[in-house]
Amino acid sequence: MDKKKIAVVTGANKGLGFETCRQLKELGMHVILTGREESKIKKAADLLNKRDSDVSWAVLDVKDTASISQFAEKVQNTWGRIDVLVNNAGISINSRFDEPSVRLTIDTNFFGPLRVTDALLPFMQKGAIVVMVSSIMGQLSCLSNDLRRRFESPNLTRDELIGLMRDFVRSVGDGTYAGKGWPSSAYSVSKAGLNMLTRILSKELSSKGIIINSVHPGWVRTDMGGQSAPLDIKTGAKSIVWAATLLANGPTGGFFHQGKPMQL
Length: 264
Ligand code: NAP
Description:
Shape: globular
Strand content: 5-15%
Bound molecules: NADP nicotinamide-adenine-dinucleotide phosphate
Helix content: 40-55%
């Protein structure tokens, strides 16, 4: 492998993930597109792979620990290191709000990035960058004052945050979520958790010189954002690419939109 930076993007077969790969490739990185379906991710990589070995692809389902382990093994055997990790894969289920759909959303949008980051950190060195693709929907104003205080406590630990996310899923199951101050949006809670996870991981990673930020891409015309969204995919992906190309002395642990800090 040459000296190009190596970037891994999850959920890269379409939407913001695919466009982020295109832009990172334009900037001279070797991009590894990952997605949960082999046929889709291979097709997406072929679209970018106009010249030989410019991009690679791999199967990676962020919900599936076996899939993550297989990918980590492939990284070790094929590329050896990762300079940029973009945790982009995400879902938003608007058609229902029940325990199974909430569990799936939290598992994909919160636990997915946590599992993938933990598994790939051994391949990341000083100066490496992690980007969490989050959303303005995850601002803490979606929570009750009490929950908000617990989320934003500077002393919140990884285990406490995981406990809060599990409590949300359980409380939807037994119908107590509203009384406890949770909103009826699994997507909002998943992204609020992701932003807090970013802050916690930034403390864990600062001694290794790895920077991590979460990003709101804007409301973007993708399958998830819908056709009424004001931003095109190119513009939306720029927020992600900004965070993926920060210098080693850049900010860490923050939440940004178009390079500007956002209210948590
Ligand atoms: P999208 O077009 O629906 O793409 C979502 C991507 O995530 C797809 O590639 C999808 O793969 C993948 N994915 C879902 N579950 C996965 C799993 N378990 N493992 C691996 N990949 C999985 O949505 P998008 O708008 O590009 O969204 C990308 C990110 O931006 C998401 O995190 C989203 O929350 C965030 N975001 C989007 C907007 C917006 O307005 N679009 C606004 C704020 C934040 P499949 O094709 O296989 O389903």
